[in-house]
Automatic annotation (TrEMBL):
Allows the formation of correctly charged Asn-tRNA(Asn) or Gln-tRNA(Gln) through the transamidation of misacylated Asp-tRNA(Asn) or Glu-tRNA(Gln) in organisms which lack either or both of asparaginyl-tRNA or glutaminyl-tRNA synthetases. The reaction takes place in the presence of glutamine and ATP through an activated phospho-Asp-tRNA(Asn) or phospho-Glu-tRNA(Gln). It catalyses: L-aspartyl-tRNA(Asn) + L-glutamine + ATP + H2O = L-asparaginyl-tRNA(Asn) + L-glutamate + ADP + phosphate + 2 H(+); L-glutamyl-tRNA(Gln) + L-glutamine + ATP + H2O = L-glutaminyl-tRNA(Gln) + L-glutamate + ADP + phosphate + H(+). This is Aspartyl/glutamyl-tRNA(Asn/Gln) amidotransferase subunit C. One of its GO terms (molecular function) is transferase activity. Keywords: ATP-binding, Ligase, Nucleotide-binding, Protein biosynthesis, Transferase. HAMAP family: GatC (MF_00122). InterPro entries: Asp/Glu-ADT_sf_sub_c, GatC. It holds the Pfam family GatC. It comes from Palleronia pelagia. The lineage of its organism: Bacteria, Pseudomonadati, Pseudomonadota, Alphaproteobacteria, Rhodobacterales.
């Protein structure tokens, strides 16, 4: 697959990237280089290889999933601009 100047312009537009018209040829060349690397990866035989998440096999530490209030209401409300009676106080928006 080869990317031409028009396709590079369309990709740039979809990605909301402003690319000057004189730079479209260089961008198309970079896209083609990336696609070349992807084609090289497609040549690797990965049959029987399990997908991995990390290079070191380790299990995540797990805890019991229990709903709590966090036991830190004072710390939670410390950054609130206005807190009353243990709750966030906000201005009334509906009359």
């Amino acid at each position: 697959m080869s990317i031409d100047k028009d396709t590079a312009a369309r990709v740039a537009k979809l990605a909301r990237i402003r690319v000057e018209p004189d730079q479209l040829d260089a961008l198309a060349g970079e896209f083609n280089t990336i696609l070349g690397f992807i084609e090289q990866l497609n040549e690797v035989d990965v049959d029987g290889v399990e997908p991995m998440v990390s290079v070191t096999p380790q299990r995540l530490k797990r805890r019991e999933d229990v709903v709590t209030d966090g036991n830190q209401p004072d710390k939670v409300l410390a950054n609130a601009p206005d807190a009353r009676e243990g709750f966030f106080a906000v201005p009334k928006v509906v009359e």
